[in-house]
Design brief:
Radius of gyration: 30 Å
Largest sheet: 7 strands, parallel
Helix content: 40-55%
Distance between the termini: 8 Å
Number of helices: 34
Mean pLDDT: 81
Strand content: 5-15%
Number of strands: 17
Strand order of the largest sheet: 3-4-2-5-6-1-7
Low-confidence stretches: 515-525, 620-630, 697-751
Length: about 750
């Protein structure tokens, strides 16, 4: 395993210009190259694409990349070609002689990567083409589309499981940025992956700052935010096509280069607007959710949601378009409770009651997130089952502008009492709006009909604005004092906690937002920021744009902002120094090195070289892959073993063979997840059998027809833990009663 891993590093620098892997990249690549099926959940910006692009260069044959959108295929192939990687795509945009030329190249082994949409892959005759083209690996990008529980369900993705039978033995690599536990399970089932390696990275994006501000004249709020960032590119998400067009027109009228994007535009106009944004000809795109999944633009500096997203997964995915280059970026949500009401009304048109119920629950969770007083990062990570280790993320409005605390005991007592009295008098519950009307002393038909004007709580809150009562009620619901019915009526009842607080007059301290809320982000040190010579940075960006226009490619294909900022810190003047810049490989040095170094030299001729403090590295995202690299079935074995069950009992309970259980335990020992005593497995008398060589069939399974020396000193010590697992030699070691001491030594050599 270590040899394979080490061989990837030179390829990484040569082809992509990077000296080190990001978290989990190396492990994913090694598992894939070992022929394992892999499911990788990595956040946007964590380098998912590299997880199949680099192994494609290290293995024989062609890697098929199943990608959902034509634009995404083109962008990735353009970037790979600029880095000297032989890649191509086949889709409806390629016809006639050009399509034939690419097919001929695939027949003759000229390409290492082939991109295609799932519909193309499953067309009649295409699988036979793949067999001839020697496809040796399949990467399924944006794989969350396969799950009906996800936020981008694409039924055609489910047909991909047919490739398992038609291309037997070809490993799958399934990748996405967002997938809850339910979606991950659906991915594994739908692709028919028997025991995949599952890699789950942290969902934290430390370079993103999250802010939620009250929505008021949203067009004005959006414009003021953009005006403060005259050189930044960004995306503004809205719910309707009309809003996208009107907002883009309003920004254009103010001198902001903006375009609209939605599914109602003609395909040519939609493609042109997207291309304008990617190539920095338009600075802002005002879009519905139809925009985003296929966008490979790393230097998006802000994402604004002018309307409330319909679910947290969609919000996370859309904010993830920002800061893919690792540099600081802002995510702003303009929130109004009215957006939730409007979204819920749309559900009345749905004929599938179950789907409507799921959608309503997701919408309310999104509203709870927007109205919450907890750190935004903590709330987001909690939704995906991850815990944030600190108490202040330093990168959201809650943590940067702490909420005011106030004693809400009296007000909470009034509201809780009103909920209780309504249920007590009428023997049914009502929604929050009716409770607020009773507190405010309103004279409505329902209040009169149900005699709620006779309640002791009627009118006791008329001196407080109704909006404040509503906000208080929602806080008490989130904090567990009030339960809501699961249906769309959302009627209220006191929880046990709420009833106890009412009866015991328990003090309740709540938080509320600062009086002044702004879309501006605080000027604080940001994760991922790279201080550099800003004047030179502007010059290099202009050079990059000229070169990109000449080659008809997006500017980031030449160099990303991260590479340019490092150039503007180091001022490289030699090939060696230029190669040290992140993102510069041998191909880009040859293509652009002299041009950029000449520009830097010209700049230094008229400007003083700046000195920068040591750059604070971006903190690496903590690994979230389940317990030291074990997949879910191995973890279950480990859990039962820790409870005291023997391998035989575990095998019987889980309906597995004993050798599989031993495989799981050996994996846990190799990864340090299990500390075991050799005598738990083998007696001292059994050690003598260690000298007995394995049968020739076992060595052939390991990959060699030559048996090593039969001396005890060389027998299984040369076998790595990875080869033990893949060749089944754990079973041989157990059969020959070899001492676990030697197994430990073998694993150490392989680790």
């Amino acid at each position: 395993m270590s040899a394979t891993s080490d061989s990837l590093l030179p390829l990484l620098k040569q082809s992509f210009g990077y000296d080190a892997f990001r978290p989990l990249q190396r492990e994913i690549m090694v598992a894939s190259l070992a022929g394992r099926d892999v499911v990788a959940i990595l956040p946007t910006g964590a380098g998912k694409s590299l997880c199949f692009q680099l192994p494609a260069l290290a293995r024989e044959g062609v890697t098929l990349v199943v990608s959902p959108l034509i634009a995404l295929m083109k962008d990735q192939v353009d970037a790979l070609t600029a880095s000297g990687v032989a890649a191509t795509f086949l889709n409806s945009s390629i016809q006639g002689s050009e399509a034939q030329r690419r097919r001929s190249g695939l027949e003759n082994g000229h390409y290492k990567l082939l991109y295609a949409a799932p519909e193309r892959v499953m067309m009649q005759g295409f699988v036979e083409d793949l067999q001839r083209w020697n496809v040796t690996a399949i990467a399924v990008d944006e794989v969350h589309c396969i799950s009906e529980w996800g936020h981008d369900f694409r039924p055609e993705y489910r047909q991909l499981a047919q490739l398992r039978a038609k291309l037997p033995g070809v490993p799958f690599l399934a990748l996405t940025a967002t997938a809850t536990e339910q979606v991950r399970g659906d991915i594994i089932r739908q692709l028919e992956l028997p025991e995949p390696e599952v890699f789950l990275a942290s969902f934290n994006r430390p370079n993103l700052s999250y802010s939620i501000v009250p929505k008021s004249k949203s067009t004005r709020q959006v414009y003021e935010f953009i005006r403060e960032r005259p050189n930044d590119a960004g995306i503004v998400y809205v719910q309707s096509r009309k809003s996208a067009e009107s907002l883009a027109a309003a920004l254009l009228a103010e001198g902001v280069k903006a375009v609209a994007y939605h599914a109602g535009l003609q395909p040519e106009e939609r493609a042109a607007n997207q291309e304008a944004f990617i190539r920095d000809e338009a600075r802002v795109v005002c879009a519905t959710i139809a925009f985003g999944m296929g966008i490979n633009k790393p230097d998006v500096r802000f994402v604004i949601h002018a309307d409330l997203p319909k679910n947290i997964e969609g919000y996370y995915q859309e904010t993830g378009r920002a800061g893919r280059d690792g540099l600081p970026a802002d995510c702003v949500l303009l929130y109004s409770r009215g957006d939730l009401v409007r979204n819920l009304k749309f559900l009345d048109e749905m004929t599938d009651a179950k789907a409507a119920e799921i959608a309503a629950r997701q919408m309310r969770l999104m509203a709870d997130f927007a109205e919450g007083s907890e750190c935004r990062r903590v709330s987001l990570l909690d939704y995906f089952g991850e815990q944030w280790p600190g108490d202040n993320c330093g990168g959201c409005d809650i943590c940067l502008q702490p909420r005011e605390q106030w004693d809400a005991t009296t007000q909470a007592q009034k509201l809780l009492s009103c909920v209780f009295r309504i249920k007590q008098k009428s023997n049914f519950s009502t929604g929050l709006n009716h409770v607020v009307e009773v507190l405010a002393g309103a004279n409505t038909e329902k209040i009169r009909k149900w005699y709620h004007d006779q309640l002791s709580t009627y009118g006791i809150g008329k001196d407080t604005p109704r909006e404040e009562w509503t906000a208080l009620g929602r806080q008490l619901i989130r904090l567990g004092y009030i339960d809501t019915s699961p249906d769309n009526f959302q009627t209220l009842t006191l929880s046990k906690q709420g009833l106890a607080a009412l009866m015991n007059r328990t003090p309740i301290v709540l938080t509320r937002s600062p009086v002044v809320a702004s879309t501006s982000t605080a000027k604080v040190s940001r994760a991922g920021s790279i201080a550099c010579d800003e004047g030179l940075f502007a010059e290099l960006r202009a050079l990059r744009k000229r070169l990109a226009d000449e080659k008809a490619v997006p500017p980031y294909v030449i160099f990303g902002d991260t590479s340019l900022r490092h150039m503007c810190r180091a001022y490289p003047q030699t090939d060696r120094a230029f190669l040290d810049i992140p993102g510069v490989g041998s191909q880009k040095l040859a293509d652009y090195g002299q041009l950029f170094m000449a520009e830097i030299k010209a700049w230094l001729a008229g400007h003083e070289r700046q000195i920068f403090a040591a750059e604070a590295p971006l903190p690496p995202a903590p690994k979230m892959k389940s317990e030291s690299g074990a997949n879910s079935t191995a973890l279950e074995t480990l859990r039962l073993y820790r409870q005291g069950l023997s391998p035989e009992k575990i095998a019987a309970q889980r309906n597995l063979v004993v050798s599989t259980i031993h495989n799981h335990l050996a994996q846990a020992i190799a990864n340090g997840a299990l500390q075991a005593d050799p005598r738990d497995y083998f007696s001292a008398e059994d050690d003598n059998s260690c000298a007995k060589p394995p049968p020739s069939t076992a060595w052939k399974a390991w990959g060699s027809s030559k048996k090593p020396s039969t001396t005890a000193s060389t027998t299984p010590r040369c076998i790595t833990s990875g080869r033990l697992r893949s060749a089944g030699l754990i079973t041989y070691a157990r059969q020959t009663l070899c001492s676990l001491n030697i197994m430990f030594a073998m694993m150490q050599r392989g680790g």
